[in-house]
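(Protein data)
===
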Amino acid sequence: MAGFRLTKPYTMSKEDIREAAEGLAKSLEREHGVRSRWEGDMVKIKGAGVDGKLSFHDGLIDVSVRLGMLASMFQPVLKAEIQRYLDEHIS
């Protein structure tokens, strides 16, 4: 199973980082048809061949994604999309 992990430090308030994380989850829902659900300060993302989670703690946002065989073909695109979102919305 393919996958990737991205981390990024942040100095934003917990409320702002949660709002940014919610925006990323909604974007992935729209663009890739995944579903998301919150568990505390972590959002889990699940879809056809995609299983991921985004958490934030101790000044670090952490995104990890596992991809099935078919979805792994889209790994570079998905990874770049998430990295771009983090760069634009997380400070």
In short: The chain has a mean pLDDT of 94. The domain at 2-89 is CATH 3.30.310.220 (TATA-Binding Protein). The radius of gyration is 12 Å. Strands lie at 2-9, 35-39, 42-47, 50-57, 60-67.
